[in-house]
């Protein structure tokens, strides 16, 4: 159970921990790397200052060595070939890699505060037995060398992608694993999600001078570099046809970069926001769409700042590379040969990740829906604004959820670890579609306005704090004043299905009694729309008893009258309308279609004209 009071509570018993304020580790990472573009091999050194803010004494550290996944027989290789529905981008490509096409990453000569440590390479994980324990509150400094080979691009990382981009350098260096109140997160890499410690990165990249580099962070020696970053006023001396790029990225949890000799570099300034960089191959077939992209992205960042929270970093980069679209701090790599709508949509989605993956920074492996689902939710609203479309922008999420819920064993709880879903389809539909639906479906529970205000509150409260599901729950509870533990438990930890129905109408003493039933196992409040013969429509909100309240008036997109709560133990519910049955034309559940009801056929009851007495389904 997460403690409710801080470590200072014994001295100050009334000092409570603020929302999301768990301890977290802190790093400073200095990388100095040289890449040989002829052999695709690189060598480097890393200096890591590791601050142990946990209450635990650490005797071991773990690092991720992601490039080792791109070797025949690796866990990623076997997983990619044996899962029920293999990712077509991977398939058996890793198994067929030749020695000069494989990935490799190894560390050597590691010193901890000047003393040698013991290293054990375990596939994509490095286990470091420390020379001396790192005590709570103390900082230890590690220095070591590493070397590797850039694999042929298969999934996210690598060289020579399908569009000809030379280097997509993501998950490329020895990255210290995250350690939190649940312990180490040193998962072997099988191509899924990421989790890291926030820190400050200082990165020196040396490679052939003909290459242009796009990267996380700010270029510190732009005057020596040129390449579209600044007017070149200084010249690097004695580099022998190579250029050293110096980047600095503060308060990020990863560092990624891309490089190509044919990159074209343009920029756009977001008013009162970051400078946006765009890198794409200088080819006529890309020019039209990529030149239009900056205007859309400026508007996207403005919309996100207004409705979800300001982006605090000085820059963001969109670079052609990778195998689709993938987010990294201050940077996204995306394939560039797209029509405008696809290019904008992918760029919106990947940049919005920097709010949820980048700045909120949840453990994506344990809670992938907190990143993908919330990113989909915000992206859908951004795209509606950019292209001025009408209607509910989240309807596709419900379609994805329905398709998932009908797949039987492939519908696994949202609490499933990202690496352990039975199918790629199940992982994707759960993390993206169900995650987006889960958030949008809060609107009929607490009100649309409370959801949007709650998301801004969530960002402001939990940014840079690795929030977990309980933190989203508590923010939304504080915003709405309602109890939501039942909602988070039912929808995250079970795969129960929702099916409410209108089952009967009875007239008694000039009043109409309506009976509803819960035919599924899932719990939700219910909105009922009653249409009278004269065209009048009235909406009633039936809260769930577990909410201990009801969404307040004026909090949703329509007016409603609150009825007494539906006791969660009761399979049926009845209420009375103060009008005779002959005046009632129809009764409909969920008029805005924001509840994921699996059977819409029983959500509506149309009464024949002149009907009185009893009508049952």
Question: What is the element layout, followed by pairings?
Answer:
Elements: E1 26-36, E2 41-51, E3 58-64, H1 75-82, E4 104-112, E5 115-116, E6 118-122, E7 125-134, E8 139-149, E9 158-159, E10 167-169, E11 175-176, E12 178-180, E13 183-185, E14 199-208, E15 212-215, E16 218-219, H2 222-225, E17 242-252, E18 257-260, E19 263-269, E20 275-281, H3 284-307, E21 315-320, E22 325-328, E23 331-334, H4 340-360, H5 368-387, H6 395-405, H7 424-440, H8 443-446, H9 448-462, H10 469-480, H11 485-493, E24 500-508, E25 511-518, E26 526-532, E27 537-542, E28 561-562, E29 572-577, E30 584-589, E31 604-606, E32 614-616
Parallel strand pairs: 1-14, 20-21, 21-23, 27-28
Antiparallel strand pairs: 1-2, 2-8, 3-7, 3-11, 4-5, 4-8, 6-7, 9-10, 10-18, 12-13, 14-17, 15-18, 16-17, 19-20, 22-23, 24-25, 24-32, 25-29, 26-27, 26-30, 30-31
Helix pairs in contact: 3-4, 3-5, 4-5, 5-7, 6-7, 9-10
How would you describe this structure to a colleague?
With 617 residues, this protein is α+β, with helices and mostly antiparallel strands. Among the domains are: 35-191, Immunoglobulin-like, CATH 2.60.40; 385-493, no CATH class; 500-616, Immunoglobulin-like (Sandwich), CATH 2.60.40. Helices cover 24% and strands 30% of the residues. A hairpin with a 2-residue loop joins strand 12 (178-180) and strand 13 (183-185). Mean pLDDT is 95; it is low at 1-17.
The biggest sheet, with number of strands, parallel, antiparallel or mixed sense and barrel status, is: 8 strands, mixed
Rg on CA atoms, Å: 27 Å
Residue share in helices? 10-25%
Strand order of the largest sheet: 5-4-8-2-1-14-17-16
Determine the structural class based on helices, strands and strand pairing.
alpha+beta
How many β-strands, per DSSP?
32
The CATH class of one domain: Mainly Beta
Write down the CATH topology of one domain: Immunoglobulin-like
Distance between the ends: 47 Å
Task: Write the CATH architecture name of one domain.
Answer: Sandwich
Q: What is the strand content?
A: 25-35%
Poorly predicted spans = 1-17
Envelope shape: elongated
Mean pLDDT, rounded to whole units? Answer: 95
Count helical runs.
11
